[in-house]
Write a structure and sequence with these properties.
It is built from 10 helices and no strands. By secondary structure, the chain is mostly helical. It has one domain. Helix 3 packs antiparallel against helix 9. The chain is elongated. Its main location: membrane. It is a single-pass membrane protein. This is Protein BPS1, chloroplastic-like. Keywords: Membrane, Transmembrane, Transmembrane helix. Belongs to the ROH1 family.
């Protein structure tokens, strides 16, 4: 996964998104309104599915995979909506294009940070594999090697990832960008901006949850206020209240936020650690029972990381392909906008 190279684009913050579809200006036709309603109802259903029956599941790799899959589907939906609106790039306001490229670059940047953290966690799994290999023996010397691997695991897993440091700043700017450009005399443009608002709310929410879980810092969470005018508003409020509340509960008393799969592995490691000290005679049957438990927990942890990594990579490719498609259209249609972007097109696409 690599970030497309492009000089920073200007950041824009426009208007009030809650006023974008009003009684003034262009009205939505009977043909356009169903498109908007279908998009928002689908988004609402996705948000309901993300609200787990067991709130503790929020701190699991399986829920994070589901969340990443959800924003990928929503992002694809916005591309499909643009096609159904028959809104060619030549009709796009320059401000919309600027906003799209600015936001999509931020999404790619955070994907790279998340991918880095997933890779770091996967590297920690190597210590577990080495420990498990040594614990297959009854030799005290091999037990000493296993303990050394456990030491490496503990040190590695508690190391902070500096690549996560910029996530908060990027998320702050994404929240600011929720105020989208005002649209005048374009019913299709109003639908596009309203739909983009829904996409960004879901993505900012999911990204902030990921940042909180990966960093172990509850202050990374956002609380977003959404107007009741959106068909997905209540589903989002319920989801945000449930997920953020569970994460805050998990961090009560100053405890760090920890993934369930990681916590399960670490609990077995801490139980095994004193049993594998060099020179200590232990009950081999008891040790092997814990080793079996560790092997199962480590496998679940590793599999969850792999599946989530694929989802993050998939979302990265979806966002990148959308940028490439827009750049290709701009290049094909020519004109003032293409000239403004021409210096970056080759670097970004290739």
């Amino acid at each position: 996964m690599s970030r497309p190279q492009e000089p920073p684009r200007p950041f824009f913050s426009f208007g009030n998104p809650f006023k974008m579809i009003s009684s003034k200006g262009s009205q939505l036709s009977p043909k356009l309104l169903p498109l908007l309603n279908a998009f928002e109802e689908t988004l609402a259903e996705r948000m309901r599915k993300l609200n787990p029956v067991n709130k503790a599941d929020v701190l699991s790799l399986s829920w994070m995979k589901l969340a990443m899959d959800s924003i990928s589907e929503t992002y694809i939906d916005i591309k499909t909506l643009i096609t159904k609106l028959e809104l060619p790039v030549c009709d796009w306001d320059d401000k919309w294009i600027d906003v799209y490229f600015d936001i999509s670059m931020k999404l790619l940047d955070i994907c790279i940070a998340f991918n880095s953290e997933l890779s770091r966690l996967n590297q920690g799994h190597l210590y577990l594999k080495c420990a498990l290999h040594n614990l297959e023996s009854t030799s005290l010397q091999q037990f000493a090697k296993a303990r050394s691997s456990f030491d490496g695991w503990g040190k590695h897993i508690n190391t902070k990832n500096p690549k996560l440091n910029n996530c908060r700043t990027i998320l702050d700017s994404l929240v600011e960008s929720l105020d989208l450009p005002k649209v005048k005399n374009s019913a299709k443009g109003k639908i596009l901006m309203r739909a983009m608002y829904g996409v960004k709310v879901e993505i900012v929410f999911v990204y902030s949850v990921f940042a909180a879980i990966f960093s172990g810092a509850v202050e990374r969470l956002f609380h977003l206020n959404v107007a009741e005018t959106y068909l997905w508003a209540q589903a989002f409020k319920d989801l945000q209240t449930s997920v953020n509340g569970e994460i805050r509960n998990a961090s009560s008393g100053g405890r760090p936020v920890v993934l369930k799969e990681l916590e399960a592995v670490d609990a077995v490691v801490k139980r095994l650690y004193p049993e594998v000290q060099e020179g200590v005679a232990s009950d081999h049957t008891v040790i092997q029972s814990s080793v079996t438990e560790l092997r199962m927990a480590a496998e679940k942890f590793s599999t969850g990381l792999d599946l989530l990594t694929k989802e993050v990579d998939g979302f990265f490719e979806i966002v990148l392909s959308g940028r490439d498609a827009l750049l290709s259209n701009l290049r094909a249609e020519g004109g003032k906008v293409e000239l403004k972007l021409a210096g970056n097109v080759r670097q970004t696409v290739w």
